[in-house]
Design a protein that fits this description.
It is a single chain. The protein has four helices and eight strands. Strands 1, 2, 3, 4, 5, 6, 7 and 8 form an eight-stranded antiparallel sheet that branches. The longest helix is centred in the N-terminal third of the chain and has 22 residues.
Length: 203
Amino acid sequence: MRTLRTVLLTAAAAGLAVTTLAQVPAAAAPAPALPKFLSAGQLPASLTPWTAGPVRQGVPSEGSVCTAGIAPAAGTRHRDFRTELDTGARQTITVAATTARAKALAAELRSALETCLDRLKERDPGLEGEAFYQGRVDIEEGAHVYSIDTSYPEVGSTDIGLYSVGRDGRAVTVVEWGQLGELDGAPLEGFKKTTRTAVAKLY
């Protein structure tokens, strides 16, 4: 009898343990790490130091004239950089729902950069300029670099912009750099290095 009672008590205890374990909620899966942004020291060399602004949620409210309206606000963050001179930069990162969507977004952003100068000229007939594809940077799924040189002959102003689109899995980044001047004075090789770093830091 004592043995049977011991068995029953043991079975009851085991059943209580199983019930208790079943009531414990499963631990939530950790949220995936967000892609990392460039730091001020990773921008192309400038005559005055770069200052990095805060990382902000969503798409930029202004600027980014070549790629505005393409990346969705959901899953997008951006960061602005500036120097004491007429030089500025921006990095935008979008994490798409799937790799296929990220690939499509990168292609759409590249197309927007390739047609940007023509669209700017249509809006402003007084604008002149040249645009060039500056090559691929071999990092992760690849990055592509562009330059757009614009001028207003009537007032004698010139601006140069460097742009890149890169992807690592579901993350797509756009890096923009601009200042007064012409392409000859732009840090093209430094910008390619910055682009490589930007894509490498995503994950």
